[in-house]
Design goal:
By secondary structure, the chain is of the alpha/beta class. It is built from 13 helices and 13 strands. The strands form 2 sheets. It has a 7-stranded parallel sheet with strand order 3-2-1-4-5-6-7, with helices on both faces. Strands 10-9-8-11-12-13 form a 6-stranded parallel sheet, sandwiched between helices. α4 runs antiparallel to α12 and α8 packs across α10.
């Protein structure tokens, strides 16, 4: 098959990694695969230094695709869903890695509705997590293909080299994630770890940063091949995200011999069993996070038990070849079925996007109206409280404005 992946960005992220693994498998199994982005990659493909294998894929922009036709075009993010109609394809697919409206603040209601509207159109869905599959059915009556993420078992294993060996009596924590994405909650996680009895705190991040307050070692934008050395050097990953699809770092830590402390965020229960292979905390229960860290510091027997069970969980998890084979099988099934045409998709996409623009403009008008109303109240208050000053300012303004 000739397959197009529409992606938002090739830059380092867990979501991009998943897409690349599926795309590479399909390419290696004799499918023609093209990655489509809005902006062209740099000539040396430096955006892909974190995942060198992805440089072997064919990369094009929407403008460069022109009239090329595909068998299947796959949207991988809500924004790319609204770009699907620009690609000539026999079939369209939506790869849903999270409920992405949750990425945005509740004040962004029009935007959240636009994101959620992508689930109502007649486009077949593949998802990576059990909770997403259930959510889509319960809320949108959508059946979807479930393909759980695999893992690079050639890289992530508990035996291998370290950045720095662990001391049996010390507790070294790994915090993972971008520092500038609010729902990843990285800075707050570091703050909580600092309040604990942990001996060291390391940070593995996709953010471009060299030093972070409270962190002993920072690993910024490292390649996927380097990350196992970091995992194997730490005892526990503390990942307190507010939103996830099926997060990979705790599972990678399991494969590298560590355990995890996480919030009860959606998707954690795909492989984390509270008190068995990791520790799960109710979201924002900060005292419990610190308590669990201190427990792992002071009770090495408990720590070792969790690590042992984490390795058992890792051994039972499938690798990427198995996962991507299931992804391929889902595409084969979809290729044989009838779904919406590109023309209908374009009409529906435009209709939904136009409503978003209307709603956003209306929201901004209300916001400006509210701001103007507040400004009027402030002016009235100052006029009553300081009448002479107010009259002086008005006089000066009028002199300037009308002279």
């Amino acid at each position: 098959m000739k397959i197009a992946f529409l992606i938002g960005s090739p830059n380092i992220s867990g979501g991009s990694f998943v897409i690349f693994e599926h795309a590479l498998f399909l390419m290696r199994n004799n499918h023609t695969v093209v990655m489509i982005t809005t902006d062209a990659l740099s000539y040396d493909m430096k955006e892909l230094n974190w995942h060198n294998d992805a440089k072997n894929l064919s990369w094009r922009t929407y403008q460069q695709i022109g009239n090329i036709s595909f068998d299947i075009a796959i949207a991988t993010w809500w924004r790319t869903f609204y770009e699907l109609h620009r690609i000539q394809s026999k079939k369209y697919v939506y790869f849903v890695q999270s409920i992405e409206s949750r990425f945005y603040n509740h004040t962004e209601k029009p935007l959240r509705k636009l994101v959620d509207s992508t689930y109502i159109l007649d486009i077949p869905i593949i998802t990576e997590a059990t909770w997403i599959k259930k959510f889509l059915y319960d809320n949108y009556n959508r059946h979807s293909f479930l393909v759980k993420n695999g893992i690079r078992k050639d890289l992530f294993r508990h035996e291998g080299e370290f950045c720095q060996k662990r001391n049996a009596n010390d507790l070294r924590i790994l915090v993972e994630g971008p520092i500038d994405v609010d729902f990843k909650n990285v800075m707050k996680t570091i703050k909580l770890c600092k309040k604990s009895q942990a001996d060291e705190i390391w940070l593995l991040t996709s953010s471009n940063v060299e030093k972070v307050h409270g962190v002993d070692k920072v690993f910024s934008r490292v390649s996927i091949e380097q990350t196992p050395y970091i995992y194997r050097s730490c005892d526990v990953i503390v990942k307190l995200s507010y939103v996830e699809g099926m997060f990979g770092p705790p599972l990678e830590m399991f494969h590298c011999g560590g355990t995890a402390i996480v919030y009860n965020v959606s998707g954690y229960d795909e492989y984390i069993k509270n008190g068995v292979n990791g520790l799960v905390v109710d979201t924002d229960n900060e005292d419990k996070v610190i308590e669990f860290i201190n427990e792992l510091k002071n009770n090495t027997t408990r720590r070792d038990e969790l690590k042992k069970e984490a390795i058992k969980t890792a051994e039972q998890w499938k690798d990427w070849s198995d996962s991507s084979k299931e992804f391929e099988e889902a595409l084969v099934v979809i290729d044989k079925e009838n779904y919406s045409s590109a023309d209908l998709l374009k009409i529906n996409s435009k209709f939904l996007f136009d409503w978003y623009v209307i709603a956003e403009n209306y929201k901004n008008q209300l916001k400006n109206k509210k701001a103007n109303s507040h400004l009027k109240r402030v002016i009235c208050w100052h006029k009553k409280r300081f009448p002479k000053i107010y009259d002086f300012i008005i006089k000066k303004r009028n002199n300037y404005k009308y002279s």
